[in-house]
């Protein structure tokens, strides 16, 4: 890279760019239009594959104050560090290639930087968001005190709302490139710990463009990086050699646990706003033990992040709340469960509602205005429950069986707490925009014979309607499911041979068997499996295969184990006459579940359509009634499956995603909650409290 000496400019604007062709010009225009002309801009292209470089070069050709550096894959922190090495001005401004600064940004910030006493190391201003439709949000004014205390827990500034002294930046070695996100927060936190002088002005000079966020795809990475920054803020930080004495030890560790809950709420809000499920994220991440979590911070975090996830403004809450209320309740309920903190969710929701009262424009919206009076319904929404078998099955690796005793207990308690309704009734209510909050729906997948012998009698006894989703291939062939055959071969053969080698679609797979207790910690023994690990490994390989391919591999595995590949009486599927006896339209409904129970996305569109259509026709003949509902096998579907289900004329389709029903629920993706072999107490604890009055 060639370095040209340039006259001393008063501020260097550092612009890392990666595939930013769509936005870079607007960003550069906002720099070129500054009232203060004494600046240089350094664009650092981080290996873009779109026309970013050509765009940038055109700007360089037009304005000698703009330079372009090219690198590869440094990440935003690395790209900024790299570009800053070429900066010649005493002040640095980091501007991302999709953000904007207002025309008097540099003039106002430089004025503050040079006139404030004591002389600041860093000057910050207010910022605002730009919505996708161009509206600019209210100014967000950073706090003017306690910067270290606050930065220990959260970021306070938009990166382009900060002018930082270059010597200070260099003294700290720039951004920590080990962080993929949150690196600027980490740097400001280090500055604050070292006692750097922060000087703030209230002018709103930095505009942050809301765009469908990569953050929502990467909530876990964002959370992990933030967690690291928070942990650093709540302990010593060896990277800061001369901390201010008050900050040397960091903030108290108890506060770190609270900050982590708050940040988890932030990430959950981004996911919720972008229409994603936050529950899986919240279940996976690591919290710290916290005595009595406060609610202010999680609530204000989520108030900020849900609109961001939706690329909307804070002012848009009156439209966002009705759409996301259930997901927000659910997220707080999951945090409550993970942190074992009674009442956390209800307190958060009430606080949330109290905040939302302050919006004026609820008035035209009638009864959607949230009130604290209906707190008892805060955590309630309709639920769909998913069962497979009502039976006593010893060999049940997927825990799909619920014993008749437990099922009976579950129905009793469900009848007390909820209105158990037919699925088609609930769907009609949802279509009319109603949310029957007490509704619960029972569904059963796969059509095992115990549907008729065990499930239906108990449904009749408790007066609970249900829908059974049937795969029609096993009914026609009178043959059980491959996963039951595989389970019997692998898990019930007394002594399996030591080695198994299978060629599947041209790839050779080999495993060695291990005794259950053997300590297997080394990489080299990754293919040494005990019986249950071997079962799941084979299950994963067989699942995406075609029906006929799977049959021949099952035979090979059976031969290897010294047994047969037939299904057993106990895993029997309903025969056609039994389906006729099971079906009682309006009480016991039949739904379709394909012919061969494939993972639909593994098939081409013609095959998907055939599986879906044929199962509907056969189910209608067997049930003697229309079949309006479908369930995706394994819960797997893609756009092709959705359109095929719609084209076949189904009115609704069930997934296996465990969420409550939302207002405006997509009827082609109805969520369902898995029910295990739980007694009344466990069922009550796992299913009911998440969404029912406490
Ligand atoms: Zn199924």
Trace the largest sheet across and list its strands.
3-2-1-4-7-6-8-5
Give the distance, in angstroms, between the N- and C-terminal Cα atoms: 65 Å
Could you tell me which ligands this complex binds, including any ions or cofactors? zinc ion
Per the principal axes of the C-alpha atoms, what is the gross shape? elongated
CATH architecture of the largest domain: Alpha-Beta Complex
- Binned strand content: 5-15%
Number of strands: 21
Query: Roughly what is the average pLDDT, rounded to an integer?
Result: 89
Largest sheet: 8 strands, mixed
Q: What is the level 1 CATH name of the largest domain?
A: Alpha Beta
State the helix count: 24
Note poorly predicted spans.
1-8, 362-379, 690-694
Give the helix proportion (percent range).
Answer: 40-55%
Q: Give the radius of gyration.
A: 30 Å
- In CATH, the topology of the largest domain is named Spore Coat Polysaccharide Biosynthesis Protein SpsA, Chain A
Report on the architecture of this protein:
The protein is of the alpha/beta class. It folds into four domains: 11-215, Alpha-Beta Complex (Spore Coat Polysaccharide Biosynthesis Protein SpsA, Chain A); 253-378; 383-478 and 571-676, TIM Barrel, CATH 3.20.20; 482-566, no CATH class. The chain has 24 helices and 21 strands. The strands form five sheets. It has an eight-stranded mixed beta sheet with strand order 3-2-1-4-7-6-8-5, with helices on both faces. Strands 9, 12, 13, 14, 18 and 21 form a six-stranded parallel beta sheet that branches. A three-stranded mixed beta sheet has the order 15-16-17. The longest helix is centred in the middle third of the chain and has 23 residues, at 317-339. It is elongated. Mean pLDDT is 89; it is low at 1-8, 362-379 and 690-694. Bound molecules: zinc ion (ZN).
């Amino acid at each position: 890279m060639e370095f040209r000496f340039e006259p001393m400019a008063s501020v260097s604007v550092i612009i890392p760019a990666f595939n930013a062709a769509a936005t870079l010009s607007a960003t550069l225009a906002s720099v070129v239009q500054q009232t203060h002309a004494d600046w240089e801009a350094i664009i650092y292209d981080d290996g873009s594959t779109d026309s970013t470089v050509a765009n940038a070069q055109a700007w360089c050709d037009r304005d000698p104050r703009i330079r372009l550096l090219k690198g590869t894959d440094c990440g935003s922190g690395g790209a900024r560090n790299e570009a800053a090495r070429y900066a010649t001005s005493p002040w640095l401004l980091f501007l991302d290639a999709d953000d904007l600064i207002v025309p008097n940004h540099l003039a106002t910030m430089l004025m503050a930087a040079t006139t404030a006493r004591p002389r600041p190391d860093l000057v910050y201003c207010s910022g605002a968001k730009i919505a996708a439709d161009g509206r600019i949000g209210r100014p967000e004014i950073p706090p003017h005190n306690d910067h270290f205390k606050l930065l220990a827990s959260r970021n306070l500034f938009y990166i382009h709302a900060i002018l930082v002294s270059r010597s200070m930046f260099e003294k700290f070695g720039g951004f920590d490139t080990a962080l993929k996100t949150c690196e600027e927060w980490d740097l400001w936190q280090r500055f604050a710990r070292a006692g750097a002088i922060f000087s703030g002005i209230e002018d709103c000079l930095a505009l942050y463009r809301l765009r469908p966020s990569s953050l929502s795809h990467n909530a876990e990475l964002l959370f992990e990086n933030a967690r690291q920054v928070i942990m650093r803020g709540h302990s010593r930080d060896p990277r800061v050699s001369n901390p201010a004495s008050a900050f040397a030890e960091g903030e108290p560790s108890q506060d770190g646990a609270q900050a982590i809950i708050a940040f988890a709420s932030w990430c959950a809000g981004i996911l919720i706003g972008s229409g994603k499920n936050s529950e899986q994220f919240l279940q996976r991440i690591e919290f710290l033990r916290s005595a009595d979590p406060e609610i202010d911070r999680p609530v204000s975090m989520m108030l900020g992040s849900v609109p961001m996830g939706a690329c909307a403004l804070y002012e848009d809450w009156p439209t966002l709340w009705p759409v996301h209320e259930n997901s927000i309740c659910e997220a707080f309920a999951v945090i409550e469960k993970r942190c074992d903190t009674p009442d956390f969710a209800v307190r958060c929701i009430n606080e949330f509602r109290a905040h939302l009262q302050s919006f004026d424009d609820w008035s035209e919206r009638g009864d959607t205005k949230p009130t604290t009076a209906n707190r008892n319904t805060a955590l309630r929404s309709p639920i769909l429950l998913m069962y497979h078998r009502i039976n006593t099955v010893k060999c049940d690796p997927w825990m799909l069986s619920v014993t008749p005793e437990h099922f009976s207990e579950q129905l009793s308690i469900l009848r007390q707490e909820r209105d158990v309704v037919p699925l088609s009734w609930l769907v009609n209510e949802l279509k009319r925009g109603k949310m029957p909050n007490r509704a619960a729906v029972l569904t059963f997948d796969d059509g095992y014979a115990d549907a008729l012998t065990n499930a239906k009698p108990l449904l009749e006894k408790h007066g609970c309607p249900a829908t059974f989703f049937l795969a029609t291939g096993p009914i026609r062939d009178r043959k059980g499911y491959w996963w039951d055959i595989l389970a019997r071969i692998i898990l019930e053969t007394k002594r399996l041979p030591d080695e198994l080698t299978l060629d599947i679609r041209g790839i050779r797979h080999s495993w060695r068997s291990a005794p259950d207790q053997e300590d297997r910690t080394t990489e080299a023994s990754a293919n040494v499996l005990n019986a249950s690990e071997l079962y799941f490994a084979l299950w994963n390989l067989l699942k995406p295969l075609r029906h006929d391919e799977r049959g021949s591999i099952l035979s090979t595995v059976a031969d290897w184990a010294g047994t047969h590949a037939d299904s057993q009486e106990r895993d029997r599927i309903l025969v056609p006459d039994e389906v006729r006896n099971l079906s009682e339209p309006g009480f016991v409904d039949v739904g379709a579940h394909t012919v061969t129970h494939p993972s639909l996305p593994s098939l081409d569109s013609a095959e998907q359509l055939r599986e879906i259509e044929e199962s509907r026709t056969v189910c209608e003949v067997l049930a003697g009634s229309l079949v309006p509902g479908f369930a995706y096998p394994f819960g797997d579907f893609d756009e092709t499956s959705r359109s095929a289900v719609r084209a076949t004329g189904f009115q609704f389709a069930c997934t296996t995603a465990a969420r409550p029903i939302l207002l405006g629920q997509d009827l082609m993706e109805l969520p369902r909650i898995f029910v295990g072999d739980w007694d009344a107490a466990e069922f009550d604890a796992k299913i009911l409290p998440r969404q029912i009055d406490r």
